[in-house]
Amino acid sequence: MSTSFELPASFRLGFIGGGQLARMSAMQAFRFGIEVGAVCSESGSDPMEKVTPTIFRGDVSDYDTLMKLAEWANVITLENEFLDADVLAKVEQDSGTPVFPSPETFRLIENKRIEKETFRNAGIPVAPFRVVKSEEELPKTGMQLGWPYMLKSSKGGYDGYGNKKVSNFAQAEAGFRALGGTEGREVIAEKNVSFTRELAVMVARNEQGTVTYPCCETIQENHICTRVIVPAPVNRSIRDTCESLARKAAEAINGKGLFGFEFFLTEDDELLLNESAPRPHNSGHFSIEACSVSQFENHVRAVCGLPPVQPTMRFNAAVMVNLLGKSSGDAVLKLPDYGQNDEEIHVHAYGKTTARPGRKMGHLTVLGNNPDTVLKRALQAESDTRI
Ligand code: ATP
Ligand code: MG
Fold this sequence. Notes:
The protein is built from 11 helices and 20 strands. By secondary structure, it is an alpha+beta fold.
């Protein structure tokens, strides 16, 4: 008998960050009797605050705060990317508490340039890109990549905040400056991909195995993911290729934990890896109810050394809709009428007390066997839900 499934009842899992991703992973950890702690912000209103009393208040990249978490926990894991690989490595070394995904893995993806080089070297296609060292290089870059192109800060972007699509020299100059290029921050230029769809695949991986979630389509508005459609409405062979590229990408970074990989599907049905996330991802939320094992359970499993479980779909189709804040103020949840239908509706609120326009306040997932009906019900449920 393998002993690898054993977990001491006193096991403690620490999260660097207290957002909804940590909270949904924590809720799976509780099912295994695991105790959970988190680094939370001074605001006192992070989603994790409502699910555990074990809070370490401070910044997610602050060494002293992370050391407190590491001294408390058996394993620590990530839920966002506003971290520093050097600090993570030092905390791991000084505390002796393992960090998964490892600081070495994180180092490969914390910087978009290194991330793209790593995947390209592993034979995974990415969009053409180059580093822009100075404003003088901006027109030449336009000649090489074509106009418009994307400027991206190598570090620190999220929900499109580190990106600028530029159509002419004046815009490129302004974008380069806004991204800190003139102050020495590394900026890359990337070919603007005219994609037909954006696809994503979640992978859970540790020394005991690698599993992948079904390839889904993600739909973004204003750079924020608004909907996820599962399975992605593309040929089976494209989904299979996407899943195997994601698996290869997780291997390329020697990933231990849970990873999200986002792809562009081009007009020629080519797949380009856009970016990766070393944590649960919005494109995997559907798995909570749609799959036999959710991304959050596999996150906990992968970082705690339990074998990841290959998920299967419980229904033919799922649509996940993000519930975004519509205005600023106190959050109030208004649930939709679930009705008497073949589809299932599941609503999640993250416990954020204050809403802001575009803030991810919760999500809902609709499951069923007819993809068209599921999408229709999801859009209806979205308009009936307030948060
Ligand atoms: P997040 O972490 O939320 O995914 P991010 O700030 O790291 O966002 P990206 O994932 O690189 O940024 O880009 C966000 C979105 O911008 C993509 O999902 C895509 O819609 C668009 N985008 C990014 N790069 C390109 C590109 N090269 N060509 C066309 N569109 C792009
Ligand atoms: Mg992205």
